[in-house]
Amino acid sequence: MKTLFLSLLISTLLSLSLSKELCNSHDKKVLLQIKKHFGDPYLLASWKSDTDCCKDWYQVECDSATNRITSLTIFAGNLSGQIPAAVGDLPYLQKLVLDHLNLTGTVPDFLSRLKSLTFLDLSFNGLLGSIPSSLALLPNLGALHLDRNKLTGSIPQSFGKFKGSVPDLYLSHNQLTGKIPASLGNMDFSVIDLSRNMIVGDASMLFGVNKTTQNVYLSRNMLEFSLSKVAFPSGLENLDISHNKIFGSIPPQMTQIPLQSLNVSYNRLCGQIPVGGRLQSFDFSTYFHNRCLCGAPLQNCK
Ligand SMILES: *[C@@H]1O[C@H](CO)[C@@H](O)[C@H](O)[C@H]1NC(C)=O
Ligand SMILES: *[C@@H]1O[C@H](CO)[C@@H](O)[C@H](O)[C@H]1NC(C)=O
Ligand SMILES: *[C@@H]1O[C@H](CO)[C@@H](O)[C@H](O)[C@H]1NC(C)=O
Ligand SMILES: *[C@@H]1O[C@H](CO)[C@@H](O)[C@H](O)[C@H]1NC(C)=O
């Protein structure tokens, strides 16, 4: 009797502790492959095969209903190497952050398989090559951070037709060349940051009076277009177009925009700075180093 009771107790405890493993076995296998790919780094020391990835591992989060991995956030470390193919085998990922890791290789095409992704951040690495146009196939993408890498080539045409939501787009501090595809004019980005690249030509398609765009950062490129005819989104808050070859004049409509910050310096603008709105609240460095801009806060027009 006693032994029966004991063995019952033991088997109950055993099944209890076994059933407590929440981690999906496929996802766990994939994560362990990722760890191995990076050479079992100290950064991923909490990823152990005999513990529960949903409860015991850092850098990952599981969905509370399905226990599938929905978030992988590895931040700041030295994981030099390419983005492992195994990442493409986590189909329920909503958030993928591989940031400040010294990663090399390209931005892989297989990321477009991760249809649940809402947030993709690969910034501050050493990623090379061009931006895969297939990223525009991600139907739920809310933010794409590819800034501060060594990406080359031009912005994909496909970024003018994201399949679902319009992501906040951060592509700054790369080596992107070519023109901004005209198709981007179809998008109503909330944030677009293309600064510190080598992009040429027109950027006026990013603007438009009916867009809800709030932040546009284009500084330190080789953009060359007239500002005179640009109609700015009525809710634009931050605009930096400094260090380009932008010509024309500042349109009077800019006095009606609730700008919190503005920088048009180091361009080829001319004419009087329109009077009104926030335009005289910025100091001269917002406007200096242009061809012949004048009026407050610069010197009077002649
Ligand atoms: C990045 O990786 C390279 C090559 O493996 C290495 O020499 C360098 O020290 C790494 N940088 C950092 C900040 O860890
Ligand atoms: C980064 O990792 C690479 C490869 O493992 C190694 O060669 C390099 O020394 C590391 N750099 C630093 C700063 O730890
Ligand atoms: C902006 O929206 C208004 C009102 O819906 C419309 O009349 C106008 O044609 C639109 N302008 C542009 C440039 O799309
Ligand atoms: C505008 O940009 C220029 C060039 O980068 C910089 O020197 C200046 O301080 C900036 N001014 C403002 C108000 O941001």
TrEMBL record:
InterPro entries for this protein: Leu-rich_rpt (IPR001611), LRR_dom_sf (IPR032675), LRR_N_plant-typ (IPR013210), PGIP (IPR051848)
Signal peptide from the UniProt entry: 1-19
Pfam families: LRR_1, LRR_8, LRRNT_2
Subcellular location per the Swiss-Prot or TrEMBL entry: Cell envelope
Main location: other
Protein name, UniProt field: Leucine-rich repeat-containing N-terminal plant-type domain-containing protein
Keyword Repeat (UniProt): yes
Keywords for the protein's UniProt record, in alphabetical order: Leucine-rich repeat, Repeat, Signal
Annotated Leucine-rich repeat-containing N-terminal plant-type domain residues: 25-63
Top-level lineage group: Eukaryota
Family of this protein: Belongs to the polygalacturonase-inhibiting protein family.
